[in-house]
Amino acid sequence: MIIGTGIDVVNIPRFEKIIERNPALLQRVFVEHERGLNLRSLAARFAAKEAVAKALRAPAGMVWQHCWIENTEDGAPYVVAEGTVAEAAARLGINRWHLTMTHDDPVAIASVVAEHLSDEELLILSRIDPEGRGLVPRDPSAASLQP
């Protein structure tokens, strides 16, 4: 069942100016391994984090670094959530994220679908993706902080 969706568009030149004026934004929003990415990838990840927040109905107290983007071996992006983001997802019954991102100057776009899978669907998914990419931890409070 789809619980929420979110989409966000980032103007890459505007995003670059914001980072130039406020370099601390990189530290506040992105986890360490994201900070070294090129500007387009950062803008797409920022859009993804915004899309996640929208799918969660923009909960107060969300910590930006409790959500980041990883990639599979073949490059497909997926959401990793912990702490405040995983807790907000669990409250809504979200246990799976779907993410797509793209960038083509001058914009970066991300779209997120937040889903609740039944135990049976989770079992089927575990056969397809044993690493469970895009899943929200069953006990968000037990999740480790940052990779």
Automatic annotation (TrEMBL):
Signal peptide region: none
Record: residues binding Mg(2+): D8, E50
Known cofactor(s): Mg(2+)
Catalytic activity: apo-[ACP] + CoA = holo-[ACP] + adenosine 3',5'-bisphosphate + H(+)
Subcellular localization, as worded in the UniProt entry: Cytoplasm
InterPro entries: 4-PPantetheinyl_Trfase_dom, 4-PPantetheinyl_Trfase_dom_sf, ACPS, Ppantetheine-prot_Trfase_dom
Molecular function (Gene Ontology), one example: holo-[acyl-carrier-protein] synthase activity
Summary of the function given for this chain in its UniProt record: Transfers the 4'-phosphopantetheine moiety from coenzyme A to a Ser of acyl-carrier-protein.
HAMAP family per UniProt: AcpS
Name the record gives this protein: Holo-[acyl-carrier-protein] synthase
Gene name per UniProt: acpS
